[in-house]
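Ticket #4471: complex job returned nothing on first submit. Input attached below:
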Amino acid sequence: MSETRPDAPPRVLVIGCGNILCGDDAAGPVAVRRMWDLGLPPAVRCADGGTGGMDVAFQMRGVPKVVLIDACSSGSEPGTLFEVPGREVEQLPPLAGINLHAFRWDHALAFARWLLKADYPTDVTAYLIEVEQTKIGAPLSPRVDAAVDRLVRRLLTQLGDGAV
Amino acid sequence: MTSTILPPNTKRISPLGRVEGDLDLNIKVDDGVVTDAWTEASMFRGFEIILKGKDPQAGLIVTPRICGICGGSHLYKAVYALDTAWRTHVPHSATLVRNIAQACETLQSIPRWFYALFAIDLTNKNYARSPYYAEAVKRFAPFVGTSYEPGVTLSGKPVEVYAIFGGQWPHSSFMIPGGVMCAPTLSDVTRSISILEFWKREWLEKQWLGCSIERWLANKTWADVLAWADENDAQRNSDCGLFLRMSLDIGLDKFGKGCGAFLATGTYFQPELYERPTVEGRNAALINRSGVYDGAEFHDFDQANVREDITHSHYKGSSLLHPWDGVTEPIDPLEGAKQGKYSWAKSPRYLVPGKGQIPLEAGPLSRQVIAGRPGAAKHQDYDPLFLDAIRTVGPSVLVRVMARMHEACKYYNLARRWLGELDLHDKFYTKPTEHAEGKGFGSTEAARGSLSDWIIIKNGKIENYQVVTPTAWNIGPLDGKNVHGPMEQSFIGARIADPADPVEVGHVARSFDSCLVCTVHTYDAKSGRELARFKIGEGAR
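Support reply: We reran it on our side without changes. The output follows.
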């Protein structure tokens, strides 16, 4: 498949969310950087969503498939990977008390459905990586670092095969 | 004093809360009027500690991650801190690109803040008796309001321009000492112009103003603004016209005064005057000027007069240090509480000759007050409107909001002009000498106020790095002389209609657009009983 115009929406958009200053919360942004370094399949684009929650929604316009990568804290073994269908976790932020800083990707998904309407992706999947620590200034923990690699390889294979 | 809001980790699989920091606010209410207030930043942020010992350029990567909303502003001041420390050369067009990016980030923030954060409170049931209430609900109700939707949707446009030059927004690091990491093409420039013109036409003129930018900017006094709102139906029925009329009806012009003294460190450089950035040459090269207004007189801004007071902050000791000498030695907040400390925010203060160290409000109102100072150079902004506003009606929630919205017109005009001045054949980068020793100061005006970095480089590494944010200027706690910070002072005097739902307090907090999630605890002064406890979402850093 040949590359489309540089400003045309890609076929797949991978968005890494999280704060690189906070230990394992960096998993999302680090994952999209590693994918970029390894070479993206055609028509796949990466975005660093960082902590700008609402803008994650703007980036999804017109993209059929969106993959979100984020850290999570569920009490599971650190480095555990979760795959969650977007529809299951969409929720609008509380109306009283909307806050641009606590605007998380589950809010971003619901917000994007409202914002983009017909241009909302038909397929949204979130991959979550269980954290060990989120200490300010700390690097990725070894188990989370390994989980990021596992996820990056898995996604590159899947997206490269066009299996998604 | 109060409990921290914890990240919402209760669901089985839950995304983490981000590093933003929470604000707990304690207010004392006596016969329905706020009589005292304390702001408590309840999360520790140790960016200064992260940066110590790192490569001097680490600030360009780390500080834009402090915030997901004004990361570009963090980058802008971080790069100037290094430019001054390394004594770089910044090409003409690189300065223009930096200016354009900084302005576009602020343009994005204006409608997003108004519709997603501020205007929601106008639909509070407290105002049901206002004749404007039904219209406010129709327009400003979250997600379904007729103005909310286009306002929020169109707010995303200006940062598309940032991303064209910066590669991405948020969290770009494309400004580097000696210039920027891009070489714009003609199509980048024409796309940027069309994006900004679309934003101006569809939101700023059509929805917010109901008139042209030029007509709005012809307002030079507060009386002009009031007359403007009655001039014709388009203006009267615009979002701005409705907001003005409703605010006067519900009394947003009556409270939220603050400390009455203002700071702008200024922003945007006239390229030919700042090709060799220095700390000393900064004021003269600014387009939007720096300055201090103490309520009676203007003073030139001098970074040497800034201090951070930690008497009531959870840090060791009670020092009052200049940021170059600043130390960040956190202590256990339980230990801090025993010493009368109650916040993780430091209290920035400014030495005004004859007045000592005083708190200063930062933000759009401060910038616009400073813009009213006579004596602007030819390349500098002179705008008397908001100096007149605070002298005639006084600072208030209403005036603070209007100052923020006013800047949409001014920053649009600037960004549009700079796009036209870009010389695509110019250089965008001059490779600097990476001096092993140096001292730098970089500052800008983020959407929500003055934002500055002070850096000391020794042996090629960061020896000291201090970030002073607009939020610290505004929400800092009591200082060593027990003088309240600007936001604390703003709450005092507010009349609370319903202590179980003190929307007035939300208005004050949001008018500053501080970065923090707010938990408000209202205490009855007589019984000491806690009357209400609820969360208020806040704007940005």
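Chain B has one domain: 22-303+360-536. Closing as resolved unless it happens again.
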